[in-house]
């Protein structure tokens, strides 16, 4: 979502590439689905204990949810 964030937040509206944003968002959703499946089997990224690995993942997910894009819905 980093590159989509740059397009949507850091790039002036008249220079944004909406097709690129859509492609980046779609690619991110595929990766988030992998992460979601991984976390379905454990409490944290590396197992059952909170580690440094959870912090950057959490920050990226938090930033992604704050972006003005439509998202696929997940069934859980």
Could you describe the 3D structure shown?
By secondary structure, the protein is mainly α. The protein has one domain (2-65): Glutathione S-transferase Yfyf (Class Pi), Chain A, domain 2 (Up-down Bundle), CATH 1.20.1050.10. 57% of the residues lie in helices and 0% in strands. It has three helices and no strands. It has helices spanning 2-10, 18-39, 54-65. Helix 1 packs across helix 2. It is elongated. The two termini are 22 Å apart.
Index terms:
76 residues, mainly alpha, Glutathione S-transferase Yfyf (Class Pi), Chain A, domain 2, elongated
Summarize this structure briefly:
With about 80 residues, this protein is mostly helical. Helix content is about 55%, strand content about 0%.
Let me know the number of strands: 0
Give the CATH level 1 class: Mainly Alpha
In angstroms, what separates the terminal alpha carbons?
A: 22 Å
CATH architecture: Up-down Bundle
Number of helices: 3
Kindly state the mean pLDDT as a whole number? 88
CATH structural fold name = Glutathione S-transferase Yfyf (Class Pi), Chain A, domain 2
Structural class by secondary-structure content? mainly alpha
Output the helix-strand order. HHH
For the biggest sheet, the summary is:
none
Total number of distinct structural domains: 1
**Global outline:** elongated
Poorly predicted sequence stretches spanning 5 or more consecutive residues? none
Strand content: under 5%
Helix content: 55-70%
Computed Rg: 14 Å
